[in-house]
Amino acid sequence: MIDALLSILIFQLIGEVLSRGLNLPVPGPVIGMLLLFAVLRWRGGPPEPLSATANSILAHLPLLFVPAGVGVMVHLPLLAREGAPLLAAIVISTSITLLMTGLTVHWLRRRK
Amino acid sequence: MDDRIFSIWVYLAQTPLLWLTATIAIYRAMTLISRRLGSPPLLNPVLLSIIALVSILLLTGTPYATYFDGAQFVHFLLGPATVALAIPLYESERTLRRIFWPALAGLIVGSATGITAAVLAGRLVGLSEQTLRSLAPKSITTPIAMGIAEQLGGLPSLTAVIVIVTGMMGALFGWELLGLVGVRDDSERGFALGLASHGLGTARSLQFSSEAGALAGLAMGLNGAMTSLLAPLLARWLGL
User: Fold this and answer.
1) Which residue, among B106, B77, B84, has the nearest Cα to B195 in the 3D structure?
2) Under an 8 A CB cutoff, do A87 and B165 touch?
3) Would you place residue B1 in the very low, low, confident or very high pLDDT band (cuts 50, 70, 90)?
4) Is B198 an interface residue toward A (CB < 8 Å)?
5) Domain ranges of chain B
6) Helix-strand-coil percent breakdown of chain A, rounded to 5?
7) pLDDT in tens, A31-69
8) Which one of B68, B103, B110 has the shortest CB-CB distance to A97?
9) Does B165 have pLDDT greater than 80?
10) Is the minimum CB–CB distance between A56 and chain B shorter than 8 Å?
């Protein structure tokens, strides 16, 4: 458990250092994820405790968005003014993005 | 007696302990309530927790900064959780290889569409310039989106809220919407959901299969990078 946590943190740290040090547009944790993925391929799989720790963090992924979401309280006046059109813009553009992405991948795979 | 309660409150209000515990406890309670109600997508634990916490903070007159002092420990875990996505990604390597080139094309198309559609839809409904700039990076994960919003001259803290609403919307109807237009493959649906609605789309995809979740996590990560590259260019082109 402690080893698993440590390795996740180390990969994130390496990712952050690379991202900032080389001025990459890719965020640190994403570089950490890709590096860990490369190491897992080289090792031929994750050790059991790492799998277990990763899965238990991922099982509660939605919780991690709550603190930033509570930030809505700072913007209540703005949302009273623009909330409804903003929500409409989010729904419309999210639907378009989902469809364009899904259909692009789907069509290109069928073409082959 | 009242004095004593007051001094306990003063102590608790100063330590991160109270709001950290409250965040996790309320999320836990809302998970149980949501499940009891039959897990209606609209009344998801994230939305219910945010409503409950905001109400408590407003009623007790607690500023958001005080709350965040405690809750930041939960917020911090977004980074390790992203790294942890390497495990489902490894387990889906075969799928990843099969879908690689179409997914790469989907990434470029999806990322550009995400930014452009947000700005155009926002203009259509008449949002203010500053809100538009906060809306542009809405599809990607919170920390990166906030950085981009700042760069574009938006409000990073408003972007955080927009990002979470986007995530909830994707989780609410994304999977079904893709099914309606004939995209029924788990990996394709997961990829689109992670790209358009980041971590909450990924969490939703993980409910369907670990393969969908892994591709969603990958799309979330890649779109974070792609949007950081494209947003400044597209913003100029869209006249922001």
Assistant:
1) B106
2) yes
3) low
4) no
5) 2-76, 82-237
6) 90, 0, 10
7) 898 899 999 999 998 999 999 999 898 888 889 989 999
8) B110
9) yes
10) no
